[in-house]
Write a structure and sequence with these properties.
This protein has 15 helices and 2 strands. Strands 1-2 form a two-stranded antiparallel ribbon. It is globular.
């Protein structure tokens, strides 16, 4: 009989393949462009949630700064899209504030390659350096969460005050083309959606392989007993800094895919509330499952969109009540609860033949025959 863990692993990959097929080939012809664009936006949120689940669920570090890294990636790519739309001219918002020469830090973003690189590299460098300084000082738990939250608030306030450089509260808009293709075209939106699905799949596979590797076992060891890991010669500060940087890079990559599908990036997308929402997605879906982060992001945002449309005055109260109910009834999250049920059922099925009355009678007859 197959071991339940191996059976679940096989079932898991089959479900992964089927879901990917549905997302790539079934939904695009069925959904309208608006619905496809909305789903693509939700899938970018799922990418961020997978990165948070890796650092929170498996390494035990609750980061309240993932919205910051997501926003940095979106700003980097949004600046490129803004320059591509402007052509040889300056972005329109600059002339409103009396700026007649492109600021020096905008120049690298004329290149799409550099913009893509910086969208991932800047969040990784910021998270890696900050994380190593914090972890080397043995800062962890709620203190680490507070520091990341404070950093997010500081950067959001700084961006709001930069009207001349990045249009302040209004954010970066006027994104008309991407790599020469018109963003508003249906084919471009479909292409962005497909790219988002592929990137989500690759990120999921990367995180799963990382967790299953030796490095992943070290992450889990840090979560379960960091002091013990330090005693046997490992450097937990370095390991945690690497994990933090990886999750930040994943968030930045999600920001790259988010901004052309939404058409705007502003400080609102990287404030404290945005980071807390990411934590909610993972908590609802289930920590330390990866797939739960995706499910949570899709369910919460779909519910948010549906309920806010039907009940614009009460949707926040309804969403809050639903979240509290899910956390109280399913403390392991939806996917975590289903996994626990699957494990219990598999164990009962394996034990049933041993406890079957016919088996007990046969065993008693065998003992009598042996005694004779």
């Amino acid at each position: 009989m197959n071991h339940p863990a191996k059976s679940f692993n096989k079932t898991h990959w089959i479900a992964f393949a089927v879901t990917g097929f549905i997302l790539l080939f079934v939904l695009p012809p069925v959904l309208s462009v608006f619905q496809l664009n909305l789903l693509g936006k939700f899938l970018t949120y799922a990418i961020v949630a997978v990165g948070l689940d890796m650092i929170w669920g498996y390494a035990g570090m609750l980061s309240l700064g993932q919205g910051l890294f997501f926003g940095l990636g979106a700003y980097c790519f949004g600046m490129y899209l803004n320059l591509e739309a402007a052509g040889e001219r300056l972005p329109n918002f600059m002339s409103l504030y009396g700026v007649f020469e492109l600021p020096w830090f905008w120049e690298p973003f004329r290149s799409p390659v550099i913009a893509l690189f910086l969208a991932v590299a800047l969040p990784m460098v910021l998270a890696g350096v900050l994380g190593y300084m914090l972890f080397r000082s043995r800062i962890q738990g709620v203190y680490f969460a507070i520091v990341t939250q404070a950093l997010t608030a500081i950067v959001a306030l700084l961006l709001v005050g930069q009207q001349q450089a990045i249009n302040g509260t209004n954010g970066i808009t006027e994104m008309k083309t991407i790599f020469g293709f018109t963003i508003g075209d249906n084919s471009t939106q479909t292409g962005l959606y497909i790219a988002t699905v592929i990137v989500l799949g690759l990120v999921y596979i990367f995180c799963r392989m990382t967790i299953k590797s030796r490095f992943g076992r070290l992450m889990i060891a840090i979560r379960d007993d960091e002091q013990r890991l330090r005693f046997i010669g490992y450097n937990p500060a370095l390991i945690k800094a690497i994990v933090f940087a990886l999750s930040a890079g994943i968030a930045g990559l999600a920001g790259v895919l988010f901004v052309p599908q939404v058409g705007i990036i502003s400080p609102k997308q990287l404030d404290i509330l945005a980071s807390i929402e990411i934590v909610i997605w993972v908590a609802v879906g289930g920590r330390a499952t990866l797939i739960g982060a995706i499910v949570g992001a899709l369910l919460v945002n779909t519910g948010k969109s549906t309920i806010s449309t039907a009940n614009p005055d009460l949707w926040q109260l309804i969403m809050g009540a639903l979240f509290v109910g899910v956390v109280l009834l399913f403390p392991k999250g939806l996917v975590g609860t289903l996994q626990s049920l699957y494990t219990r059922l598999s164990s009962r099925i394996r034990r049933t033949p041993l406890n079957h009355p016919g088996t007990a009678v046969a065993a008693a007859d065998l003992e009598i025959d042996t005694a004779r």
